[in-house]
């Protein structure tokens, strides 16, 4: 049986310095992304509104134009049935992005991406030196899992950018989430660099936990896209109804004072319509979220199977209804329901999106909630 090496304190300290350095640069990237959105062009709202208005006017004019043919002789045509488009299926162009049409905003956006790349390199260096300090996988406790998870999320984002995908709009929520994740890791979840408990001395640690981290990172991107889809879909619906800009202010003034919830939603829309107009269309956001979740779901299935195989090797049984096992399965069921809903008439669009967000909530609870508040065989991965 191999003897575990003592922790290398120098490398562990270097890892800590690198993670704090990464947080400092992530903060600069956060400020640059804020500047990108602030300098974003306001003309995006008008341009998107004009596109929808033109299409709506063309559709409305088709029926009226038929009655004016043949020198006043009415020519009756089969009327078109007009229905409200399914959420996320309107023919709406993608927004111009966080920077809008502002060159200054675009410069800040490019600076933010460069800072994010630098942060990622520092972050990766911290994870690597943490692993070298104990000569094992760098995800043996909640602190290490959190830092590696954050690094993987950023890696997925940068990979999508390198693949020329239109995802720069994720930059601000991404950096915000990473700062929260690392802040929680270094302040609450921090654990000194040390060796693992005997149950974790297995090559399955590399396989099972690494796939769980990769799945979580991809699920985060899918959840972010799905959440913004809900906001963008609401914006597009209001745009079709003429309840944006001046129309929204007029609608708000006409709302009775006792309809507090409706007034709250209208006031919220006043502040969110501008950034929403610069996002990709609801259909594009919905498609991105679905493709990511559908692609990663088989890997999440493998993660659960790998965990069961490891459990049999470590504890002598494949399944024991441990809280971590149960919530991993609940997460699997939730994502399976989402994928099924996407293929079911009447459940596409917003209903399926709510299921996707609930599924991601199950994943987050499975990590934080189960590890912190529930006692089980995975308790050694706690704080």
TrEMBL record:
Membrane topology category: Multi-pass membrane protein
Domain Cytochrome c assembly protein: from-to ranges: 139-374
Main location as per UniProt: membrane
UniProt record, GO biological process: cytochrome complex assembly
InterPro entries documented for this protein: Cyt_c_assembly (IPR002541), Cyt_c_biogenesis_CcsA (IPR017562), Cyt_c_biogenesis_CcsA/CcmC (IPR045062)
Record's keyword terms, sorted: Cytochrome c-type biogenesis, Membrane, Transmembrane, Transmembrane helix
UniProt-annotated location(s): Membrane
Name of a matching Pfam family: Cytochrom_C_asm
GO molecular function, one term: heme binding
Transmembrane segment boundaries: 17-39, 111-133, 145-163, 170-191, 203-231, 288-311, 326-345, 352-370
Domain of life: Bacteria
One GO term describing the cellular component: plasma membrane
NCBIfam families: cytochr_II_ccsB
Protein name: C-type cytochrome biogenesis protein CcsB
Organism (species): Streptomyces telluris
Lineage, broadest ranks: Bacteria, Bacillati, Actinomycetota, Actinomycetes, Kitasatosporales
Gene name of this polypeptide: ccsB
């Amino acid at each position: 049986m191999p003897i575990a090496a003592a922790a290398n304190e120098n490398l562990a300290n270097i890892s800590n310095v690198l993670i704090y350095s990464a947080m400092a640069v992530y903060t600069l990237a956060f400020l640059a992304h804020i500047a990108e959105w602030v300098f974003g062009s306001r003309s995006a709202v008008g341009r998107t509104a004009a596109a929808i208005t033109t299409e709506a006017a063309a559709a409305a004019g088709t029926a009226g134009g038929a009655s004016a043919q043949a020198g006043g002789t009415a020519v009756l045509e089969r009327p078109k049935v007009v229905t409200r488009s399914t959420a996320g299926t309107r023919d709406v162009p993608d927004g111009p992005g966080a920077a809008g049409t502002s060159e200054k905003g675009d410069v800040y956006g490019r600076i933010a991406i460069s800072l994010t790349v630098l942060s990622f390199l520092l972050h990766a260096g911290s994870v690597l030196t943490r692993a070298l300090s104990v000569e094992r996988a760098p995800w043996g406790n909640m602190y290490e899992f959190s830092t590696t998870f954050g690094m993987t999320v950023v890696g997925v984002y940068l990979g999508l950018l390198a693949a020329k995908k239109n995802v720069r709009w994720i930059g601000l929520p991404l950096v915000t989430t990473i700062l929260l994740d690392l802040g929680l890791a270094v302040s609450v979840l921090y654990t000194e660099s040390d060796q693992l408990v005997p149950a974790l001395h297995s090559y399955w640690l590399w396989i099972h936990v690494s796939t769980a981290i990769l799945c979580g990172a991809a699920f985060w991107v899918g959840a972010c896209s799905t959440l913004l889809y809900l906001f963008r879909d609401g914006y597009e619906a209001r745009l079709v109804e003429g309840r944006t800009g001046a129309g929204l202010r007029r609608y708000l003034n006409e709302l009775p004072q006792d309809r507090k919830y409706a007034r709250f939603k209208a006031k919220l829309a006043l502040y969110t319509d501008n950034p929403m107009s610069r996002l990709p269309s609801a259909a594009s956001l919905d498609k991105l979220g679905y493709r990511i979740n559908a692609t990663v779901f088989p890997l999440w299935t493998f993660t659960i199977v790998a965990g069961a195989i490891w459990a049999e090797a470590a504890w002598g049984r494949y399944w024991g209804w441990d809280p971590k096992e149960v919530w991993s399965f609940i997460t699997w069921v939730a994502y399976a329901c989402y994928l099924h809903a996407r293929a079911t008439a009447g459940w596409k669009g917003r209903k399926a999106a709510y299921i996707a967000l609930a599924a991601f909530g199950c994943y987050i609870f499975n990590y934080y909630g189960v590890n912190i508040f529930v006692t089980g065989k995975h308790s050694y991965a706690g704080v």
